């Protein structure tokens, strides 16, 4: 099981180095998602696509993804992961 593709922590430097408009940030997220999932395709049977997008009180977490893209980043991430691995099971992970 792959944990996690999209999170607000533990990001590669090239991901966080991009001060971006929504289009630029979407391109960075797509590249990040595609590279990670493609690298492990056939070895990972399931992915936690998005991890902890909400605060403890249920509001949206203000993240590098949410700020420029809004909540649509979640659906986009699921689409990109699916495109990179047609066979993997996909899920959302949260603790609250």
State Rg: 13 Å
Q: Spatial order of the strands in the main sheet? A: 1-2-3
Proportion of strand residues: 15-25%
| Helix-strand makeup class | alpha/beta
Helices and strands, in order, run as EHHEHHE
Q: What is the total number of structural domains?
A: 1
Domain GH10: 1-96
Protein name: endo-1,4-beta-xylanase
Keywords: Carbohydrate metabolism, Glycosidase, Hydrolase, Polysaccharide degradation, Signal, Xylan degradation
Pfam family, one: Glyco_hydro_10
Describe this structure in words.
InterPro entries: GH, GH10, GH10_dom. It holds the Pfam family Glyco_hydro_10. This protein has 96 residues and is α/β, with parallel strands linked by helices. The chain has one domain. It has four helices and three strands. A three-stranded parallel β-sheet has the order 1-2-3, covered by helices on one side. α2 runs parallel beside α4.
In short:
The chain is of the alpha/beta class and 96 residues long. 42% of the residues lie in helices and 17% in strands.
What are the salient characteristics of this protein?
single chain; alpha/beta; 42% helix
Lay out the secondary structure.
Layout: E1 2-6, H1 13-16, H2 22-40, E2 46-51, H3 66-69, H4 72-84, E3 89-93
Parallel strand pairs: 1-2, 2-3
């Amino acid at each position: 099981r792959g944990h996690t593709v999209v999170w607000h922590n533990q990001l590669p430097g090239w991901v966080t180095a991009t001060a971006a408009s929504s289009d630029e940030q979407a391109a960075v997220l797509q590249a990040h998602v595609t590279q990670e999932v493609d690298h492990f395709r056939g070895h990972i049977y399931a992915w936690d696509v998005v991890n902890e997008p909400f605060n403890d009180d249920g509001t949206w977490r203000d993240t590098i993804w949410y700020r420029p893209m809004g909540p649509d980043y979640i659906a986009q991430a699921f689409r990109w992961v699916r495109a990179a691995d047609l066979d993997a099971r996909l899920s959302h992970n949260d603790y609250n």
